[in-house]
């Protein structure tokens, strides 16, 4: 959702790439709630560090506590082995993981909307 929002709002000023520790599918609830505000993220896909080898990003933003701890892309040490991308600056913002929400479809959508709006 963060990648889609950044591309939509600031796409002429920034390039956004979303990656995770492991490649996964984009959550269908995320696709639905983003579509509600006119942003189509259905063609986005989960990427891993392997797709960004040898890249030095200006900034990396982690959006959950688990990523902050385990994200190799977020190392500000430019001496990290070449197989891992690097970032000159790292920002962390902790959001609840909406995919971890249990409950009815309406309850899940409510949490996805809340996180979308917080981002």
From TrEMBL:
Gene Ontology annotations of biological process type: response to arsenic-containing substance
SUPFAM superfamilies, per database record: Phosphotyrosine protein phosphatases I (SSF52788)
The alphabetized UniProt keywords are:
Arsenical resistance
- Where the record annotates domain Phosphotyrosine protein phosphatase I, the positions are 1-119
| InterPro entries associated with the record | Ptyr_pPase, Ptyr_pPase_sf
| Cross-referenced Pfam families | LMWPc (PF01451)
SMART domains xref list: LMWPc
Q: Which PANTHER family match?
A: ARSENATE REDUCTASE (PTHR43428:SF1)
Name of the protein in question: Arsenate reductase
Please give the organism.
Methanosarcina mazei (strain ATCC BAA-159 / DSM 3647 / Goe1 / Go1 / JCM 11833 / OCM 88) (Methanosarcina frisia)
Per the UniProt record, the lineage of the source organism begins with: Archaea, Methanobacteriati, Methanobacteriota, Stenosarchaea group, Methanomicrobia
